Amino acid sequence: MANGSRGSRQAAWEFFGAELKRRREEAGLSQSALGTRVFVSGGYIGQFEQAIRKPQLDVAQRIDETLQTDGFFERMCRKLINDRRYAEYFATVVELERLATEICDFAPSLVPGLLQVSSYTRALTLASHPFAPDEYVEDMVTARTERGRILHDATRPVYWAIMHECVLHIPVGGTATMAAQLDHIAKLGRQRQALVAVIPYSAGAHASMQGSLKLMEFDDAPPTLYTESEFSGSLLDDPALVKHARATYDLLRAAALSPEASLSMIESAAEDYRQCTSPT
Fold first, then answer.
1. Domain ends where: 80, 109, 128?
2. Which of residues 78 and 105 earns the better pLDDT score?
3. Which pTM was predicted?
4. What is the per-residue pLDDT across 15-71, written as a single tens digit (0 to 9) for each?
């Protein structure tokens, strides 16, 4: 998607925030008072008004009910989160990743999105959308590359990524792509921009055999859990579920190799792919 489109969408979120502030003040409510009525903190309302944080759809609906705005904020929210690069259930996750102070990813069968290089993402996109036009494919690649930039920001989150060893041995995009992908992961690990761990085949059964999970923590909000299956995802902040997911992630960490041993395994696999690529 062009930079102009992203800028226009940000301007629209700024309008959303300005309207929220105007209508809140007309209703005689402070940020804290509105937050209490829509079940978020006053600080959240302030971030909505400054277009720092984007409200989830259910929060926009409660704002409409409280301020009696006849669905205005719901309609704007639906339009603004309709970014074709992301499934509707994932758009909020992308916003939360940018605000998180810590992210813990687990991927059972593919490289987590924040770690993917463009050629790996392109191969995944083509595998699931073999008839997609080039524009769509490149939009997907650009969107995922943009997400990964948070690991290079000065305010980057503490980032943990646990992968199963099988991820290293599925040749997504071919040997050259896999060598580049694994080199990228190892570089992030060596530069201490990510802490990467691998669960080896020898570990046998592990605590999250049925799918991926992502835990996110924030300075001013409760921790959030995101889980995903093939065609849907769930963003959850129920304290009991998040606590259970945290315990599961701790078990995954316990089953994984040490970060140093994991990086050595990743680098060895990258070299194996390079040997396959090199002319004999």
1. 80
2. 105
3. 0.73
4. 889 999 999 999 999 999 999 999 999 998 999 999 888 888 889 999 999 999 988
pLDDT confidence of residue 89? 67
46 and 100 in a single domain? The answer is no
CB-facing half-sphere around the CA of 118: CA atoms within 13 A: 9
Cα radius of gyration rounded to whole Å, the chain: 21
Tens digit of each residue's pLDDT (9 = 90 or more) over 86-119: 766 687 788 789 889 999 999 899 999 999 999 9
Q: Convert 18-41 to b/e letters by CB count within 10 Å (16 or more is b).
A: ebbbebbeeeebebeebbebbebe
Task: Kindly state whether residues 48 and 131 are assigned to the same domain.
Answer: no
Question: Please, which pLDDT band fits residue 273 given cuts at 50, 70 and 90?
Answer: very high
Instruction: Please state, as a whole number, how many other Cβ atoms lie within 10 Å of the Cβ of residue 55.
Output: 28
Whether 121 and 141 have beta carbons less than 8 Å apart is answered as: yes
What is the span of the domain harbouring residue 165?
88-277
